[in-house]
Design goal:
This protein has 10 helices and 10 strands. By secondary structure, the chain is α/β, with parallel strands linked by helices. It has 2 domains: about 130 residues, CBS-domain (Roll); about 45 residues, no CATH class. Helix 2 crosses helix 3. The chain starts with 6 loop residues before the first helix and ends with a helix.
């Protein structure tokens, strides 16, 4: 992550907000429809609270308002966002360093903060945004070398680097298991199927010493 990354660089300028006077049932429907777990409660443009899924569900259950009740059920019981909302989310300035925001997210145990400028909410930064901004990217798709490759400078046997252009074993790798004449020295016996370290050639086949004597 760049050390000069700020809140303004990653914040969502469009975010979900509700007012204190909104019916709780409408706010709960917004939570479900948008697939989010928290709404910012605004008074004008000032963030004054938060409404989480658990807060909304708990209040609706306590009031006996179920999913099958009519659309005015919570209004009749006086349930509004302001009556059940939690404390405001932590606030940051748009020009704050993102690194400082990450520390706030962890230390305060929240999954988002609100960016405030001139007393009004102008954006939201989630823990996912901070994580994405700090995720390492190579940009070329190259993988990190394996430990034994770093030590020897050679690819591991079985890696893609040992394959030829046609998908078969690279000739340089294949040569390591043959003798100077090109005859196989280790592998699976073509007669009995045993894996042996010292194959020999007999009648045009690579066989183990036991099968050669038969």
């Amino acid at each position: 992550m760049r050390t000069d990354t700020t809140v303004r660089d990653v914040m969502h300028r469009e975010f979900l907000g509700v007012s204190e006077s909104d019916p709780l049932r409408d706010a709960a429907a917004l939570l479900v429809d948008e697939g989010t777990n928290c709404l910012v409660v605004l008074r004008g443009g000032e963030p004054v609270g938060r409404l989480g899924c658990r807060d909304a569900l708990g209040a609706l259950l306590d009031a006996g308002v179920g999913a099958g009740d009519g659309p005015t059920a919570d209004g009749e019981s006086g349930l509004t966002v302001g009556s059940v909302m939690g404390p405001p989310l932590p606030t940051v300035a748009p020009d704050d360093a993102l690194a400082a925001v990450e520390e706030r997210l962890v230390s305060e145990g929240v999954d988002r903060v609100v960016a405030v400028e001139n007393g009004e909410a102008v954006g939201v930064v989630t823990a996912g945004d901070a994580l994405a901004a700090g995720a390492p990217r190579t940009g070329n798709g190259a993988r990190e070398p394996l430990p034994d490759e770093e030590a020897t400078g050679e690819p591991r046997r079985g890696d893609a680097a040992t394959l030829g252009s046609d998908g078969g074993v690279d000739p340089a790798v294949e040569a390591s298991s043959t003798d100077a004449s090109g005859s196989p020295t280790q592998g699976v016996c073509e007669s009995c199927g045993a894996l042996v370290p010292d194959l020999v050639t007999a009648n045009g086949q690579a066989v183990c010493p036991e099968c050669r004597e038969v």
